[in-house]
Specification:
The complex is a heterodimer of chains A (165) and B (525).
Chain A (H helix, E strand, L loop, with lengths): L11 H4 L2 H16 L21 E5 L14 H5 L5 E7 L5 E9 L8 H5 L5 E4 L13 E2 L1 H6 L17
Antiparallel strand pairs in A: 1-4, 2-3, 3-5
Chain B lengths: L7 E6 L2 E6 L4 H8 L23 E4 L6 E2 L10 E3 L3 H14 L17 H8 L16 E5 L2 E4 L8 H9 L5 E4 L6 E4 L12 H5 L5 E3 L12 E6 L8 E7 L2 E7 L12 H8 L11 E4 L2 E4 L2 H11 L6 E6 L4 H14 L5 E3 L6 E2 L7 E2 L7 H6 L3 E3 L10 E5 L16 E6 L11 E4 L8 E4 L5 E4 L12 H10 L10 H11 L8 H4 L16
Parallel strand pairs in B: 1-5, 16-17, 16-21, 17-20, 21-22, 22-23
Antiparallel strand pairs in B: 1-2, 3-4, 3-5, 6-7, 7-10, 8-9, 11-12, 12-13, 14-15, 14-23, 18-19, 24-25
Classes of the chains: A alpha+beta (165), B alpha/beta (525).
Chain lengths: 165, 525
């Protein structure tokens, strides 16, 4: 079947490049007069982080420096990637506590379930992301390291304030 | 309590029609109809029924007031409603009262996941308390050497008090104080030292009584469980072994009406939790050029089948802790190499009887399978046999822990099959790694001749194998290569080789065991 070609004739005003070029040059001129920086000078300048950012774990402590953890075993139970190791024991007051508490940050997927499930608000994720280690073993954070951190705790999502306002 | 007779009655529970013998309680009838009636103070193994927890209240159609189903006898034509609005409301209120002073410390409570209060509180959906008062704190108490009592968690069902009084016959516990200040305590000046006290932890429906061996250890959902038979004495109590990370963490009695009912003794509990200590053998070792050398199974068995001397004088020592299948295989091996007789050593201890359930007794013979050893011609011996130079010595299962370090040094050939490596065992010509009873399947024969199966609870270390598997393989080498991998087959062979077990079927033995000779056929003293 012989084909036919439809020839569209655009009006001069929309076919011309002049308008598009002048718009582009206008933006360039604007940046010449009032420049807007896109590049951030990291690490000299840091990002403003959301208080809901889920980063490095941190263990809350009592005033005397003891970890708040009661060794209930809910976080290793809920952890979807099995990165928490907990061995509970009895302390000198006969209370349950975590004799061994280790989080493998390398394996962690930062889902935040551990923070959500903790009955005593001991384990938290933190607003912190800059981690570096020389060996993989060092990525297993023990209780001592988790309690030493000082970065802010991650804020949990609030169903009554879904946009965190 | 309620004497049942042969007369049958019909009743309806939640629309399910059920026929029960006259004298059955409504709660038992509901169980038969498949209807769960929540309850705390009623326990099928404890005869007294105070009906004080008020949890099992049910509505009887046509009657205005609710009645406790645990003491209510079923009558003909009765129509019971357990899910009516009044019954549900009554249960909800009972739970609310129980939770008034309950600390709700489920996350650190050892009963979490196996707690009836937790289950029903969740079911009635009472996640928030309506009370504005501060909760009463009563603290905790060491009620026995190894049992802790958390008074805050206690719901005062008095199962423990009534177990001690009605079943153990040792009235050691009481309810002290009254009303909201009431708690469980031992009688003044009396200690809870009964041999069966561990059962009060099992009957406790909440986490108020906790055994010290289990305190703050694994969560209930972290454990695997395997049905087994207690090896503590010749009574053969049915148990469940709870395991976490290949360690036995707890032992609980498993119901068997003919052997142990709902109970077991503390000797059995302790015995098993301590069972896995000591250095284990995990590789076959054979002595070549004077040195023990680790080899793989194929090589070890080939070497044994060519080097094991046949004929000549010899001695055999077996263990009453070994399974019947293993003992049968040892007898077959001894027959092959021409050793007659053979014996096992048996330690004895004090006896203790549970008054309310006389079949259950901590027996003097502290081994589970002496009767099984007798079936295959092994007799009890006082000590180890004297080994003269050049004799063949076969030791299977006996740990030789108390034998002198040079025992068996002069033997011409010393075959040791066992789980633990003692000093005397190091003198052996060949050492084969065997599993303990918890790491294999098999059967024990108890004091009255009852054959009971146990299941595998643990993974054996290294390449350790059940003794019957090792020996049947060894016997099969060069004789048609019989490889036996299942305890079912080993049991069939063992049964056919012993007069008394002949015709017994592995499936027939099942989880509850059978007594092929009837009740009156004690084989071993």
């Amino acid at each position: 079947m012989p084909g036919s070609v439809k020839v569209v004739v655009r009006p001069e005003a929309s076919a011309s490049y002049v308008r598009a070029i002048s718009t582009g040059l206008g933006i360039t001129l604007k940046h010449m007069v009032k420049p807007k920086k896109q590049t951030q000078q990291y690490p000299d300048e840091k990002w403003d982080l959301s208080r809901r950012l889920r980063g490095t774990h941190r263990m809350a402590t009592h005033e005397d420096g003891r970890a708040k953890c009661v060794g209930c075993g809910l976080c290793p139970t809920v952890c979807p990637v099995n990165c928490i190791k907990l061995i509970p024991a009895e302390d000198e007051n006969g209370e349950r506590y975590a004799a061994v508490y280790e989080i493998d940050e390398f394996r962690c997927i930062f889902c935040g379930f551990c923070q959500e499930v903790c009955p005593v608000e001991a384990i938290h994720l933190g607003v912190h992301y800059e981690n570096a280690e020389y060996s993989r073993e060092r990525w297993v954070y023990d209780l001592e390291r988790l309690t030493e951190f000082e970065h802010p705790f991650t804020a949990l999502w609030d169903p009554f304030d879904p946009a965190s306002e | 309590m309620n004497e049942t007779t042969s007369e049958a009655i019909n009743l309806t529970i939640d629309g399910v029609e059920v026929t029960v013998p006259k004298g059955t309680t409504v709660l038992q009838a509901a169980e038969r109809a498949g209807v769960v009636v929540p309850h705390y103070c009623y326990h099928p193994g404890i005869p007294s029924r105070p009906a004080q927890c008020r949890m099992c209240l049910v509505e009887i159609e046509g009657q205005p007031k609710l009645q406790p189903s645990c003491v209510l006898s079923a009558t003909d034509g009765m129509s019971i409603l357990t899910q009516s609005d009044t019954a549900k409301e009554a249960r909800r209120s009972v739970i609310e009262f129980l939770l008034l002073n309950h600390p709700i410390d489920c996350p650190i409570c050892d009963a979490a996941g196996q707690c009836m209060l937790q289950d029903y509180a969740f079911e009635t959906h009472q996640l928030e308390s309506r009370s504005h008062e501060a909760k009463l704190v009563l603290g905790r108490d060491r009620i026995a050497d190894d049992i802790l009592y958390f008074a805050d968690r206690c719901i005062l069902c008095t199962r423990c008090v009534r177990f001690m009084r009605d079943v153990a016959g040792d009235e050691a516990l009481l309810v002290a104080q009254r009303g909201h200040k009431a708690y469980i305590d031992t009688f003044p000046g009396k200690d809870l030292e009964n041999e069966f006290r561990g059962n009060i932890v099992d009957v406790c429906p909440v986490g108020a009584l906790v055994h010290e061996d289990f305190l703050f250890k694994p969560r209930s959902w972290d454990m695997d469980s395997a049905p087994s038979v207690c090896p503590g004495c010749s009574n053969g109590c049915n148990i469940d072994i709870a395991v976490k990370e290949n360690q036995i963490v707890r032992v609980k009695p498993r119901y068997n009406a003919d052997v142990n009912g709902f109970w077991m003794c503390d000797h059995g509990r302790k015995h098993l939790v301590m069972a896995n200590r000591g250095s284990r053998i995990d590789l076959p070792l054979i002595r070549r050029h004077g040195e023990l050398e680790a080899v793989h199974w194929g090589e070890a068995l080939e070497w044994l089948s060519t080097n094991l001397p046949e004929g000549g004088s010899g001695h055999a020592v077996v263990s009453a802790f070994d399974a019947t299948e293993s003992l049968a295989a040892v007898r077959a091996l001894l027959g092959r190499i021409g050793i007659e007789g053979g014996g096992y050593r048996l330690s004895r201890g004090h006896e203790a009887e549970l008054g309310g359930f006389p079949q259950l007794k901590l027996r003097a013979e502290r081994a589970p399978n002496a009767a099984g050893a007798e079936l295959f011609g092994f007799g009890e011996t006082d000590g180890l046999p004297e080994v003269s130079d050049g004799d063949t010595l076969v030791v299977v299962g006996d740990r030789l822990a108390d034998a002198p370090a040079d025992y068996g040094e002069g033997a011409g050939f010393f075959l040791y099959i066992g789980s633990h490596l003692s000093d005397a065992a190091r003198n052996a010509t060949a050492i084969l790694p065997a599993t303990t009873f918890a790491e294999m399947e098999g059967t024990f024969v108890n004091h009255e001749g009852r054959v009971q199966r146990f299941h595998q609870a643990l993974v054996p270390p290294g390449v350790a194998r059940p003794t019957w598997m090792i020996l049947r393989r060894l016997l099969g080498l060069g004789h048609g290569e019989v490889t036996m991998l299942e305890a079912r087959d080993a049991f069939a062979v063992a049964a056919s080789e012993s007069g008394r077990l002949a015709g017994l079927n592995w499936d027939e033995v099942g989880l509850k065991g059978v007594n092929p000779g009837g009740t009156a056929a004690p084989v071993a003293k």
